[in-house]
Amino acid sequence: MSRIYKRGDSPNWWYTHGTPPTRIMRSTGTSSLKLANMLKRKWDEELFFKKHRIPQKQRIDLQDICQKYKKYMMDKRQDGKGVDYVKQKQKYIDNFCAFMMMPKNRKAFASIDAEDIDRYIVHRLNIDKVTPKTVKDDIRVIGLMFEYSIKYKYYDEENPCNNPDIPKHKGKKRRPIPVQYVLEALSSKDIKESDRAFWSICYYTGLRAEDAGTLKDSQVLKDRILIHDTDKADVPVEIPLHPKLKKQNIINVYTDKYDRDKSTKRLQAKLIEIGYKEPADLHCLRHTFNTVMLESGLGSKDRKKLLAHSSEAVNADIYTHENYDLIKSIIKKIP
Hints:
- 50% of the residues lie in helices and 7% in strands.
- The chain has 14 helices and five strands.
- It has helices spanning 33-51, 62-75, 83-100, 114-126, 132-151, 179-186, 193-205, 209-213, 243-246, 257-273, 282-295, 300-306, 312-319, 324-332; strands at 2-6, 13-17, 24-27, 224-227, 237-240.
- It has a three-stranded antiparallel sheet with strand order 1-2-3, covered by helices on one side. It has a two-stranded antiparallel ribbon with strand order 4-5.
- A hairpin with a 6-residue loop joins strand 1 (2-6) and strand 2 (13-17).
- Helix 2 packs antiparallel against helix 3 and helix 7 (193-205) packs parallel to helix 11.
- It starts with a strand and ends with a helix.
- Residues 311-321 have low confidence and may be disordered.
């Protein structure tokens, strides 16, 4: 057990660890309590490494290994593809690092165990209020970081992310918004033009809200939208550009989540105003798009490509209530 304390004969904080006859006592060399606590943590880690005979290579701290792994994630990408997707997954690493750097959680990277992962899961679910589905993806990415650490001898235990205790995800029951209500909402004269553009992108492309709100110049071509990796999946998506989208400013409509959430609430209010009483959000427009494609005769594999799913089963299980020309002709006919 260690602590820092003041002595009457010194202006500086002192550090002590253990009990006689092996007690360690040394000056921190600073009168700053903040700096003294930083030294205390550093010396505590050094003693931990020495006690457990942890090799020098495994003495890397969590912040360093997070940076190393984030660089490794980015270096694995080729030709600049997948950058946005990697940045999204890097946020999971940053979240875990921030959690473990809290004073009550801070410990040597080599000593992180399954109990720490369980506490992180509880924190994400109860404090950050994210869904079990997101937490599952979160822990998967963190687990890959530990696999990397084990491979390169930075971590010498079993991966603490194996068999995480995550509640089963209960997805929202979303229904496609009937086309007549979507068109009435889009044609309303009292909505913001940015909302009109945002809702139109979701309806005519089937993109998820974040991807729809953050389209870049490089992704919007003359006759199509081409995204190398989407917000949720590391797969490319190519969508013919509907004529109505060509007439609107669809670049970076809502890059901030707060603005997208506000736009969602305005869509909900507008739908209620025009008589649609079912629960709805922007993701329901994605279901509407999928339903229109299905009713137009587009097969599961082609719809999977349009919706950027990594699994055809996902498309069949959730959204059902290399023919580019066919897809183009179907999208062009969407009212």
